[in-house]
Design goal:
single chain, about 375 residues, mainly alpha, MetI-like fold, flat, disordered N terminus
């Protein structure tokens, strides 16, 4: 009786891995690529009278990235494998696309900071532009106007938008829900100046033509904020697992209390993010505020009486009406833009803190 024996499988002639580059190798190759590119463009600019001014930074970066892609692909295909080389090439392409998308933002921030720091002093944040013709003056009236108008718009739009999204997700069915969704989508694409014209027309018919006050600006911003809050909150409420709702119903908790105690706390972090997106969407609007809130050189903290200045309108007014001292007016415009960016950043940080405090705790943390 002969035992049946099977021969062992033949070893694969192609290994899945054929080596690996050190972790520092891609960074070293990237540095070498930029050095070579800089040397080439440096030699090209050396013949001019101003070599530093004629040095092509953008060309250096582009050629350096392209050279890196070629080098990393060739070396990886030799030292590792063809599949790993393609992976490294795709990684370089994705990283390059990310940097290209990031460059305008970095350039914008750098320009605003570089030009806005010139007027970041105590006078700029404690004085208004009342009786100021040339140098000096400040934006305290514009800061108060922006904060009060945006806060009022948020108080109006967030409850309306949040309750609308709750209705669409938890209660809305049939044609009414579809109609609300349709009109919300339409309102999302409304130009900002149309919202300003709408509020101005309503107040001109109800009160008098030519009226301007801060509350009108807040209503115009609320019209723009509400659809953003509705769409963002609706999507976040939909991703709350139905198992959480069913567990609450199984314990005898009514639907309204389930929404208040289970659904909203679960999605509070995302809802705060959507609210901040809505605030960021409207806090820099200029056209609707020019029509509704107007502009003034004095401090006004009463949104129901008289015109109010806001930071976007202040920056626009300073740049377009430079007066007897153009350099001072442009410096005030840049400083107002930087202040607006800082306010948005502070609001985002506060939103993150609020979301962290009210979010449901996991494992006691």
């Amino acid at each position: 009786m002969t035992a049946l024996t099977s021969a062992p499988p033949a070893a694969s002639t192609t290994a899945l891995t054929s080596g690996r580059l050190p972790k520092w190798a891609p960074w070293a190759l990237l540095g070498v690529s930029f050095v070579v590119s800089a040397a080439v463009f440096g030699v090209a600019a050396a013949g001019s009278d101003t070599p530093l001014a004629d040095f092509n930074i953008a060309g250096t970066v582009i050629v350096g990235i392209l050279l890196y892609m070629v080098i990393i692909t060739v070396i990886s295909s030799i030292a590792e494998s063809r599949r790993k080389a393609v992976d490294r090439l795709m990684t370089a392409l994705v990283a390059t696309a990310f940097l290209i998308a990031l460059l305008p933002l970095i350039s914008l921030l750098w320009t605003v900071v570089a030009n806005g720091l010139e007027r970041f002093d105590a006078e700029f944040f404690t004085y208004s532009m009342r009786n100021v013709v040339g140098d000096g003056g400040g934006i305290v009236h514009a800061i108060w106007g922006t904060v009060l108008i945006t806060l009022t718009a948020t108080i109006i739009s967030v409850p309306v938008g949040l309750m609308t999204s709750i209705y669409l997700v938890e209660y809305g069915r049939g044609k009414i829900a579809k109609a609300i969704t349709f009109f919300v989508d339409v309102m999302t694409g409304i130009p900002s100046i149309v919202a300003g014209l709408f509020i101005y027309a309503v107040f001109a018919l109800l009160i008098r033509p030519g009226i301007s006050m801060g509350f009108m600006g807040a209503l115009a911003l609320a019209v723009l904020m509400t659809p953003v809050v509705v769409r963002g909150s609706e999507e976040l409420l939909r991703i709350v697992p139905n198992e959480l709702r069913e567990a609450s119903y199984a314990l005898g908790v009514p639907k309204w209390l389930t929404i208040l105690k289970v659904v909203l706390p679960t999605s509070i972090a995302g809802i705060m993010t959507s609210v901040m997106l809505a605030i960021s969407r409207v806090i820099g609007e200029t056209a609707p505020l020019l029509l509704t809130a107007g502009f003034t050189q004095s401090l006004n903290t009463n949104i129901f009486d008289g015109q109010m200045m806001t930071l976007p309108v202040f920056a626009y007014n300073q740049y377009m009406n430079q007066g007897t001292s153009p350099d001072a007016a442009v410096a005030r415009a840049w400083a107002a833009a930087l202040t607006l960016i800082l306010i948005v950043m502070v609001l985002n940080l506060l939103a993150r803190l609020i979301a962290k405090l009210f979010a449901p705790k996991v494992n006691g943390r």
